[in-house]
Amino acid sequence: xxxxxxxxxxxxxxxxxxxxxxxxxxxxxxxxxxxxxxxxxxxxxxxxxxxxxxxxxxxxxxxxxxxxxxxxxxxxxxxxxxxxxxxxxxxxxxxxxxxxxxxxxxxxxxxxxxxxxxxxxxxxxxxxxxxxxxxxxxxxxxxxxxxxxxxxxxxxxxxxxxxxxxxxxxxxxxxxxxxxxxxxxxxxxxxxxxxxxxxxxxxxxxxxxxxxxxxxxxxxxxxxxxxxxxxxxxxxxxxxxxxxxxxxxxxxxxxxxxxxxxxxxxxxxxxxxxxxxxxxxxxxxxxxxxxxxxxxxxxxxxxxxxxxxxxxxxxxxxxxxxxxxxxxxxxxxxxxxxxxxxxxx
Length: 345
Description:
Elements: H1 21-30, H2 42-49, E1 58-62, H3 65-74, E2 81-86, H4 90-93, H5 98-103, E3 106-110, H6 119-122, E4 136-143, H7 154-165, E5 170-175, H8 178-185, E6 200-203, E7 214-218, H9 227-233, H10 242-252, H11 256-275, E8 282-283, E9 291-295, H12 301-305, E10 311-314, E11 319-323, H13 330-343
Parallel strand pairs: 2-3, 2-4, 4-5, 5-6
Antiparallel strand pairs: 1-7, 6-7, 8-9, 9-11, 10-11
Helix pairs in contact: 1-10, 2-10, 8-11, 11-13
């Protein structure tokens, strides 16, 4: 008789979740027979048609989120350019310097309270435009949803896009959680991307039920002119692309992307409501997607992590991050909150 390890769900990251059953089925279905490699297959053709984000949109599938961000930014920049982002941005904190290494650009991070940057914060960084001794700002990169769990409204994105375009700059969106943002805003994906003036989008799949795979979306086709070479040289051209494409086909068909994201968001709201009943816990950010940021007394954190792993976001103030996923259940929330009530006194 073999010992079975109990599989528990954590609140560390939506990356820790498994694969949605419908997407797993799509992968298995694609594993039938031979098709032409590198994207010249019917799965990829069907998946690309499902990116209904506007006319003249160019979409390219890649392996992961860092690759999507780096290659999308590289397509729009030269090495003397600068990329403006929030200090908490994934490209600034969690990509091991890859954007700077592979684009040659300097990142100009802006300190924010909620992960969202505003046009007036960018203005001081533009004083040296045209001066050859300084890098030249070319791209404003924002995360949607942000690393702090907050969400840009379409109007906020439109304001940034207008600001950028008036200054010969571009707006890039790291959309690792674009589905959660759109679901939280109750808008179509097009409303928070193309209609908001976004130029380049990294469209996330892995955090929303896919096994792996992201998409680089260009709303300005001129930026995509040589991207097929950039993708290949950047080691992100999948030979068996059908297995990424089949996942996107399943995710985008029948709004599975929205169902997954809505569920994750709802679980985050439920978690926040229940944790809010515990006086010793306070929240640091609005819960607008699938992340809950809270201050938990430091002495209790390791005790809770023994049963449910999660990340400490800010050691100085004992701020932690709880992430929910498409497969988080009400029972998971109840069990975790029950544990918190026992330990946090």
